Amino acid sequence: MQTIRSGIPSKGVIRIEVHNQAHKRIEVEISGSEGYIIGRSDNKSSYLPDIDLADFQALEMGVSRRHAALVHYRQQLHLLDLSSVNGTFLNGERLSPEVPYPLSHDDKILLGNLSLLISYLER
């Protein structure tokens, strides 16, 4: 398996590294779905995001239930802030809500105070 260094295509497998005490990885196969909601589940709601970060101290780190989304746009994977309370940052830049930003290999994402690294895996 090798990694790609350009924009992330809208199909394939992505790896999301969660940079907290546990430093864990999540692999997500992206396909024809229009997008994937990133957020956290909790005991007070039946809502379950597509990529659930609850096990990574998401609540304590300021991640909203529906914080951001990975969306297909112009044949590339983009990150979209869903008007989150604590903001979404891409490589240090705060994203404007509801605007798609293209993702590239090894981009650093901050959801509230939870740090993620995203990479594309070619299989």
Low-confidence regions: 1-5
CATH top level class name: Mainly Beta
Question: How much helix is in the residues?
Answer: under 10%
**CATH architecture descriptor:** Sandwich
User: What is the domain total for the residues?
Assistant: 1
Mean pLDDT: 88
Strand-residue fraction? over 45%
Helix and strand succession? Answer: EEEEEEEEEEEE
Number of strands: 12
Q: How far apart, in Å, are the first and last alpha carbons?
A: 5 Å
Tell me about the largest β-sheet: 7 strands, antiparallel
Overall geometric form: globular
**Distinct helical segment count:** 0
Structural class: mainly beta
- CA-based gyration radius: 13 Å
- For this structure, the CATH topology is Tumour Suppressor Smad4
Polypeptide structure, described:
By secondary structure, this protein is mostly beta strands. It has one domain: Tumour Suppressor Smad4 (Sandwich), CATH 2.60.200. The chain contains no helices and 12 strands. Strands 1, 2, 3, 8, 9, 11 and 12 form a 7-stranded antiparallel beta sheet that branches.
Name a few traits of the molecule.
single chain; 123 residues; mainly beta; Tumour Suppressor Smad4; 7-stranded antiparallel beta sheet; 46% strand
Compile the SSE list and pairings.
Layout: E1 2-3, E2 12-19, E3 24-30, E4 35-39, E5 51-52, E6 68-73, E7 76-81, E8 88-90, E9 93-94, E10 101-102, E11 107-111, E12 114-122
Parallel strand pairs: 4-5
Antiparallel strand pairs: 1-12, 2-3, 2-12, 4-6, 6-7, 7-10, 8-9, 8-11, 11-12
